[in-house]
Design brief:
mainly alpha; 0% strand; single chain
């Protein structure tokens, strides 16, 4: 009689759930901080040459990151960088890869959120003598954040599922844990059904919260 799926295997998969949640949470914290800085800078209206050059460079970089597969970026970090003497652990490569990838998308959400605010809001703040930073803090960002929340939550949902790609560099998250158990038990239908159910249990509550937020923001 062969090895069968048991409580220990299920516990191992549950550990993968925790690792996936921690990985994605850390990624979002790091990415949001960087995305706000980049998004605000890219939304800056300035004729200063240095500012325009940096904005253009960021635009190109974000385009490259958004235009290439996440799996390729992860493989570049883990398998490519050692050729130039930089060796990253699977954990470091996973966090860095997901964070850079996420920053590119979230920075666009921040930029479009800021640029969606009507110009008369800027004009009104200027008439009151507000500086750029005061206008951004007191007038623009409070309105822009309301616009950013739904797409940001939706992106977080996608990130949870995309984190399964970290398995290609040996990082053991939920999907990788499931594959490891399948290799032992050969019960692919059962194990992957459990993994799919766990992904659903993670994502469904977040999806419901996102829908509720959208309704509240629209009212």
């Amino acid at each position: 009689m062969g090895y069968t799926f048991n409580l220990y295997d299920f516990t191992f998969i549950l550990k993968g759930v925790g690792i996936t949640i921690v990985l994605c949470s850390i990624t979002m914290i790091l990415s949001l901080a960087a995305a706000f800085l980049i998004g605000i800078f890219r939304a800056l209206q300035s004729n200063i040459i240095v500012v325009r050059v940096v904005k253009q460079a960021l635009t190109v970089l974000i385009g490259v990151l958004r235009g290439t597969p996440l799996m390729l970026q992860l493989m570049f970090l883990f398998f490519g960088l050692p050729f130039v003497g930089v060796n990253l652990s699977p954990t470091t490569a996973a966090v860095l890869g997901l964070s850079v990838y996420s920053t590119a998308y979230l920075a666009e959400i921040v930029r479009t959120g800021i640029e969606s605010i009507a110009k008369d809001q800027w004009d009104g703040a200027a008439a009151l003598g507000f500086s750029y930073l005061q206008t951004m803090q007191a007038v623009i960002l409070p309105q822009a954040v309301r616009i950013m929340i739904p797409p940001t939550v939706s992106f977080f949902l996608g990130l949870i599922k995309d984190s399964s790609l970290c398995a290609v560099i040996g990082f053991v998250e939920l999907a990788r844990a499931g594959r490891m158990i399948v290799e032992k038990t050969h019960e692919s239908l059962l194990v992957f059904s459990v993994v799919a159910l766990l992904y659903f249990l993670i994502c469904y509550p977040i999806s419901r919260v996102s829908q509720r937020l959208e309704k509240q923001l629209e009212s």
